[in-house]
Amino acid sequence: MNWFDEVLYTELSDQGYMQRFKVDRVIYRDQTDLQDLVIFETPYFGRVMALDGVIQTTEGDEYVYHEMIAHVPILAHGAARRVLIIGGGDGGTLREVLRHKSVEHAKMVEIDASVVDVSREHLPSLSAGAFDDPRMDLVIADGCAFVKETDERFDVIIVDSTDPVGPGEVLFTEEFYGDCRRCLTDGGILVTQSGVPFFQRDELSRVSHRLGGVFSDARFYLAVVPTYIGGYMALGFATENSANLTVPVETLKTRYKAAGLNCRYYTPEVHSAAFALPNFIRETANL
Length: 287
Ligand code: SAM
Hints:
The chain has 287 residues and is of the alpha/beta class. Helix content is 31%, strand content 31%. It has helices at residues 62-77, 92-97, 113-122, 124-127, 143-149, 174-183, 201-214, 249-258, 268-273, 279-284; strands spanning 2-4, 8-12, 18-22, 25-31, 36-42, 46-51, 54-58, 82-87, 105-110, 136-140, 154-160, 184-193, 217-224, 232-239. Strand 2 and strand 3 (18-22) form a beta hairpin. It binds S-adenosylmethionine. S-adenosylmethionine binds next to strand 7, strand 8, strand 9 and helix 5.
């Protein structure tokens, strides 16, 4: 449930915990073919986008999530040339992926064209020109159907999805993970948005079980995104090459420097430390 008026936006979680934003101005509101899409201006977080009453991204803290969902798999891989993003309509993940000059091709498969169009117009700092990069290819389609049918192969697949309700639900199934595995090159990496463990315990446990049923090595790493309430957010990391999970921090430093990155949240040390899980998360994920 959520309430939205021209003064306050309230997001109430299934657990009865809420966050509220003071709304300075409503920028956009419409029902797309698939989702209720709203963008509003706030005093501290800048512009905020919500889909079906769930906060997707804010100008103020988006860098945490987008840097961590993009740079961890790309720098762990070390030679990613082809990257597939599923979802991610706001363009933030695409922006971070394309900061890697080594990436020759970034394909983004987003189900809702309106999210892309509205984000380009009203949240331009999210994509920061990434949709105009000649290395990118935007496909408007269901990501689940795309990986089932495509013959293309990718070094890194990033699932930047909504939660497992509505159109995002299919992106949390074992069948989808199996199709992603088939679309990865040898030593490739799949990363998935896996919710906030403190609140979404069932989601973490299900994702862990399903990823573990498909990949020989499936773990989680963590980032703290203030507006994804409940503390740590979990990102699934699945691969057939366990070496991707134990890249020495010195190697990450070399790759980070070679990529010319200067991030606000990501550092090679944060990358390594993000895989250390508090016990309640380890137990929930049954690792
Ligand atoms: N960072 C966000 C979060 O954790 O809440 C995710 C943001 S991004 C805007 C999520 C995107 O996934 C949305 O644009 C939505 O349209 C897209 N999406 C949902 N289901 C999808 C599907 N089956 N295939 C492709 N894209 C999908």
